[in-house]
Give the backbone structure.
Amino acid sequence: MLLAIDTSAGTSVAVVDRDRGVLAERSVEDTRRHAEVIGTLILECLEASSVAVETLSGIAVGMGPGPFTGLRVGIAAANAFAFGAGKPVVRVVSHDAVAYAHYVAAAASASGIVTGGGADATPLLVTTDARRHERYWSAYSGADEFALPIRVQGPGLQRPDELPEVVTGYDGYQRWDADWVSAASVGLLAESLYLHRRAFAGAEPLYLRSPDVTPSSGPRRVTA
Amino acid sequence: MTAPLVLGIETSCDETGIGIVRGDTLLANVIASSMDEHARYGGVVPEIAARAHLEAFQPALAAALAEAGVTLEELDAIAVTSGPGLSGALMVGIAAAKALAISLDKPLYAVNHLVGHVGADVLRSPVGDAPVTLQPSALPVATSGPLEYPTIALLVSGGHTSLLLVRDLVSDVELLGETIDDAAGEAFDKVARLLGLPYPGGPEIDRAAAGGDPNAIRFPRGLSLPKDLEKHRYDFSFSGLKTAVARHVERLRDAGEDVPTPDIAASFREAVVDVLLRKALAACGDLGVPRLLLGGGVVANARLRQVATERCAEEGIELRIPPLSLCTDNGAMIAALGSQLILAGHAPSGMDFGADSTMPVTEIQV
């Protein structure tokens, strides 16, 4: 059972269980209030799911890509919660969670089974808003037999008009412009990655942008 | 009520500070600074500072717990800076503090950074009531015994230059004045740069000024003319001073003359120190408050401490300067303020507060 947090778009928190699915999910779409709402969303999820902190097996967190100020709020919260609870943090690429939810839903509608399963060879291009007229993107060749997405390119950062050039075989992709990353998807993906012994994401936040700064070129003249 | 065991979290600028206190007793004060990463830019870069907080938080927290010899479960409360400061940097501490408080089921106090600087003065070392000496410092020793009210507080750093009237640490703090442009520490950085000295400018100017004549050049004292004093009696301005130094240096260079760095550094520093203390002591005199507390990173400046000591002695004002490790940004002062709020019976902050980059000093706790 995992507490899951994603702040790569809005703020999303969930409690998920491998066998029982999504026990609670609370989200706020506002992309400028991550720090304000994160605590309340965690409290509400724990209460709605009637899950005690001690019974969690870990904390799942989306590592982005996402705009840095908000993204950091979720990662900082997940790390601190895990430290306080004495539980491990498991990290996933936020786009992978979007793709996973897509493939699970596709499999469910094809087979009528809700839990997914069966490989899917549909290429999927996931993009999310990066502000400044750019998109974060990740390309998937399809999903394996557990609906786990197979990422073949990205995550990257591009202007929308550049995507056909940088994404290999762009025309073959079904494009999914997600305006939302669900913490429940992050949690369920983490459960599945653990179950099937797949690698989690690294500890580095996926900012994909350098800090906005240029080294000083020295003092400017004040007299003419 | 027994003295509460409080964890303090401070991430308002470029220092990740985690402190632990029990009542007014300092148990741990761990500071991880990203200062070196800002050096090539000549000033704090907010995004670099925020990224560094995320990386430094957990190691600093673990180190503070080890230093204090306490466990998370033993804590009575958590206190965190919610402003004023850099928004993106503050948010890292706020998010971590909220999540930590929920995971441990502990009350959370969101407090004011500037009032925290004043709160640093209540801290004592674990043995007796001697002043804190966990880290060696060459500071004149702060007066022992509890802080008395009211007191004037002069807080000077790279981000703030504020003059406060503190009638009560947890319930009554008034802003008398503040800088209307650059902070004093920022002026040190900018003048150091135009003299070709590295960042941070404070210690560099101090070094360069050794042997220089503080009266060689009469640089302007901002907002000190009678017409300015009417509206800005307790406000500061350092932008004009910086420009005056730049003009002076450019004039010498254009004329092909040597730039006497020691004299310029000493004269600039004298102008800053003079105006800071003149205004602080004017407040003491005007308001009949014979106590002055210094705080903030610029207190590391030897000349500021020396002139403060001299002038306060002349005017019969009690001067208090916490040890340097508690003057620069730190988590212990935030824990100390949290602890005093708890002892005064204040309720915890809700969960809905955010970063407030311009949080007024009248808002001691959210």
User: Anything to note?
Assistant: The first helix of chain B runs from residue 35 to 38. Chain B touches chain A through 48 residues (CB under 8 Å). Strands of chain B lie at 5-10, 15-22, 25-33, 77-83, 108-112, 151-156, 161-168, 172-178, 291-295, 318-320.
